[in-house]
Each structure stands twice: as C-alpha cells, then as structure tokens.
C-alpha cells in the first residue's frame, strides 16, 4: 500500500461545515483499498481442494420452510434499513445560528436544488457513544410530524461518527428575531392565528406522549406564509416512560419560560410545563418582549408572585409538598397585576392567559382545551395565514446573526446517559 495516501481524510477536507468553500467529499482511501483487494482476489487462481476432484455428495431434499403467521406483516411494510446519506449531498450556503447544542446552516440539496436547514448535532466531546438526547431529538421530530412542527427530512452524516446533521425544511424566520425587528407588534387577529397553530402543534405532541420542554419564541419558526413551525426538540422526551430514582431533570426549559413547579423542584411534571411556556409566549406576542426577564430563579419566582399574586392553599393545594417550597418566603398576599399589565386584552384573552399561567399544574389548561377557548371565537377573528405580511429573512442572509440577548436553554445533564437507561436524572 502506498504511504502517500492518507488512511483518514485530512481535517480541512473532512469538515463540510468548516469555514472554507471546499464542499466536495474527500477521497475515501478505504474504497480504493477495497477495489485493490477485490482485484487481488480475482487474480488468485482457484485452489484445487481434494474434495473438488472427488464425486459430489448426494443432494439432500430442501427442508420445508414454515409459512409465516398471518399476523406477520408483509415484507413491503418493513422497508430495508438504508444507510444515512452524506452531508456532501448538500451545498453549504450560510450559518443561520449557533445555539447551545449545535450549529444550524442553510444549505441547498444538490439533487433537487431545494433550500434546507441543517442542524449539526454537537457530538465532538461525546465519549459514551451517540447521546440519548440527540436520539430523543430525532425521534421526537419523527414522532410529531404535523403542519406546525418543523419537518425533518433525513439525518445525514459527515466523514466521522461525530458529524451528524438533522436536515429540515428551511423556515425563513424565528419569532424571537421577528419580534425584535418588526416595527409594530402583531395584531390581535394575527396573535390568534399564531396561538391556534402553536396550540395545535403542542396538542399533537402531547397526544403522542412527547413533552417539548423548551418552548420559547426562538424555537418557533415562521415562514413567509404566516405558518408557525415548532422547532428544537433538543430537550424533548417521552412522558409516561419509567422515571429513574431521581425523577425527571429540573434542568429543562429556558429560565424565562420555566413553570413554577420546576422552579420549586418538582421531581415529576408533565404536559403542564409546556402550557406554562405557551402562556409566556402568548404574553410575549402581545407585549413584543419576553414577559419574565429574570436574571435568576429567585428573581423569576418573585416576578411571577408579583404578577399573579403569591400562591395560596386554594390556588395551589400541593404547593407546600414541593421540595423547595419550605426554602422560600412568600411575599404578603397582594392582588394579581395581570389586568394592569395587559390593559387592552379582552376579558376572554385575559382569561386564556390566566388559565395558561395557572400555578397549579393540575388546573392549568391543556392544549386541547385551549384550542376551544372563547377568545378564538370573538372578534377580531383569527387572520388567515395567507394574509400575513412577509418580512426579509434574517436567516437567509449571508451574515451570521448576533446571538440573542436572552438566557440559553439549560445544559443537557443527560448527555452522558447510555441508551439502556430509562431515567432522566
Ligand atoms: N429549520 C430551520 N429553518 C430555519 N432556521 C432554523 C431552522 N431550525 C433552526 N433554525 C434557526 O436556528 C436557531 C437554533 O436552532 P435550534 O433551536 O434548533 O438549535 P439549538 O442549538 O437547540 O438552539 P438553542 O439552544 O439556542 O435553543 C433557531 O432559533 C432558528 O433561528
Ligand atoms: Mg433553540
């Protein structure tokens, strides 16, 4: 074998996402090697074994194969597993965003010319195999296919096992960026449409036993036809699965959107955590800025207590049983300030908001119930998505945008967990 051919591709050529323009796949030394060995094999003369010269053994009758049970689905329902395609099937266009867990690129499918988004999963430092959180993200996206959930097209691989990309439809905007660049806030009719879409996506995920656990405006994408797509299932997990001894992780949901039961250390929580985040998003769409811009958990709790009035035995019967409830001193009772904060919202709108921002998770409105709320049936009615204005897409620009001025998603504590673990500590 020639020593000049590298056995592994050089770093520069192997990185699809590196900052150079060379997006052709490196020459695979292994395929050459395989070709060579094949040639060598075919050149070898057939070995004459003593058996080949003697008389052949008598032919045994074929054993009768048992027919399959009628319950076994036909082969056509089990398409063969095929290897993932290469990232080099895509031409890299620009980096959209570098988030906590990966970089997102805009790219073009070389075969079809379609524009897509590629999210590179951060696996470089992974020492314990493919992280369960990455599998959960892929699995949740595939489980929750819906008009208002970003469409996963495929998973592609780079040159090494640490280069895995999720290929999604490219969506022009995220709501966080849009809210900061829009000259005026969304109209009530537009907010209703956006909320209906968000709620139907969340209801769909919850029906499929998936908690998103990181709903926030930067994870809500919107195309130029007024359609919202819930994205970033990086913290998603199935609920109803067996839970480990330590309970569910409390390091979920970006601080400003985090439900009070998680802040108070609840070891089990459910779909209601997503509904609290939906309440924060609803408020943000109206205010054009995040509702609770707290620097830490204590400040966040006191902001919540101020807006809603501190919890009482009536409003949150299980409050005292929460692990951290004893460690905080509740402020004196004061009336909620929700009405003052949202003076122009109709009483139906305010009712929906307060049902989403309800302390007791047992009492918090579900996505399915919220979809039926009278707020959506009163004037002004939800605007047809086609009538939404379009905006220039920051994500399609050639320049990388500045990171957001908001807290990032919690660090994934579960990355080191192996696939055999059921729990989520
Ligand atoms: N399909 C897409 N089309 C266009 N832009 C996208 C797409 N997916 C993600 N983005 C952009 O990339 C950003 C980061 O993506 P995502 O939230 O999935 O990654 P992340 O690393 O988990 O981010 P973070 O930790 O900041 O939430 C999004 O806020 C959005 O601006
Ligand atoms: Mg995100």
Automatic annotation (TrEMBL):
UniProt-listed PROSITE patterns: PROTEIN_KINASE_DOM (PS50011), PROTEIN_KINASE_ST (PS00108)
Enzyme Commission number: 2.7.11.22
Name recorded for this polypeptide: cyclin-dependent kinase
Keyword Phosphoprotein among UniProt keywords: no
Domain of life: Eukaryota
Keywords: ATP-binding, Kinase, Nucleotide-binding, Serine/threonine-protein kinase, Transferase
CC annotations in GO: nucleus
Any Pfam family the entry gives: Pkinase
Reaction catalyzed: L-seryl-[protein] + ATP = O-phospho-L-seryl-[protein] + ADP + H(+); L-threonyl-[protein] + ATP = O-phospho-L-threonyl-[protein] + ADP + H(+)
UniProt family annotation: Belongs to the protein kinase superfamily. CMGC Ser/Thr protein kinase family. CDC2/CDKX subfamily.
InterPro entries associated with the record: CDK (IPR050108), CDK11/PITSLRE_STKc (IPR045267), Kinase-like_dom_sf (IPR011009), Prot_kinase_dom (IPR000719), Ser/Thr_kinase_AS (IPR008271)
Entry GO MF terms: ATP binding; cyclin-dependent protein serine/threonine kinase activity
Natural source organism: Ceriporiopsis subvermispora (strain B)
Single GO biological process annotation from the record: regulation of mitotic cell cycle
Top EC category: transferase
Record's keyword annotation contains Transmembrane helix: no
Stretches assigned to the Protein kinase domain: 90-376
UniProt-annotated stretches for the region Disordered: 1-72, 387-425
Biased composition (Basic and acidic residues): 413-425
Polar residues: bias regions: 45-54
């Amino acid at each position: 074998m020639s020593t000049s051919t590298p056995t592994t591709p050089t770093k520069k050529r192997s990185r699809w996402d590196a900052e150079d323009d060379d997006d052709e796949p490196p020459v695979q030394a292994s395929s050459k090697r395989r070709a060579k060995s094949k040639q060598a094999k075919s050149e070898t003369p057939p070995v004459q074994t003593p058996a080949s010269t003697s008389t052949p053994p008598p032919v045994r009758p074929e054993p009768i194969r048992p027919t399959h049970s009628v319950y076994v689905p036909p082969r056509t329902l089990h398409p063969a597993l095929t290897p993932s395609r290469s990232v080099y099937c895509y031409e890299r266009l620009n980096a959209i965003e570098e988030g906590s867990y990966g970089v997102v690129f805009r790219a073009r499918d070389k075969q079809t010319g379609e524009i897509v988004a590629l999210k590179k999963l951060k696996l470089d430092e992974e020492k314990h195999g493919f992280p369960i959180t990455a599998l959960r993200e892929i699995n949740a996206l595939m489980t929750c296919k819906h008009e208002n959930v970003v469409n996963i097209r495929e998973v592609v691989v780079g040159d090494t096992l640490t280069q895995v990309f999720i290929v999604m439809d490219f969506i022009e905007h995220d709501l966080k960026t849009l809210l900061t660049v829009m000259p005026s806030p969304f109209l009530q009719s537009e907010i209703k449409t956006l909320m209906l879409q968000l709620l139907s996506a969340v209801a769909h995920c919850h029906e499929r036993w998936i908690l998103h656990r990181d709903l926030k405006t930067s994870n809500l994408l919107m195309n130029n036809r007024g359609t919202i797509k819930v994205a970033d299932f990086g913290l998603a997990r199935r609920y109803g699965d067996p839970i480990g001894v330590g309970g569910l992780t409390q390091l979920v949901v970006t601080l400003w959107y985090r439900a009070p039961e998680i802040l108070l250390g609840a070891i089990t929580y459910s779909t209601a955590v997503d509904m609290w985040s939906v309440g924060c998003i609803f408020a943000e769409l109206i205010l054009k800025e995040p509702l609770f811009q707290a620097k830490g958990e204590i400040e966040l709790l006191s902001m919540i207590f101020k807006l809603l009035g501190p919890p009482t035995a009536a409003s949150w019967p299980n409050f005292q049983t929460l692990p951290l409830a004893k460690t905080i001193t509740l402020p004196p009772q004061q009336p909620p300030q929700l009405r003052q904060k949202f003076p122009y919202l109709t009483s139906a709108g305010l009712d929906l908001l307060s049902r989403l921002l309800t302390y007791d998770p047992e009492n918090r409105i579900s996505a399915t119930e919220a979809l039926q709320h009278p707020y959506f049936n009163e004037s002004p009615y939800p605007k047809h998505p086609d009538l939404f204005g379009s905006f220039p897409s920051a994500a399609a620009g050639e320049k990388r945008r500045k990171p957001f001025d908001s807290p990032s998603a919690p660090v994934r504590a579960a990355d080191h967990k192996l696939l055999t673990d059921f729990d989520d500590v």
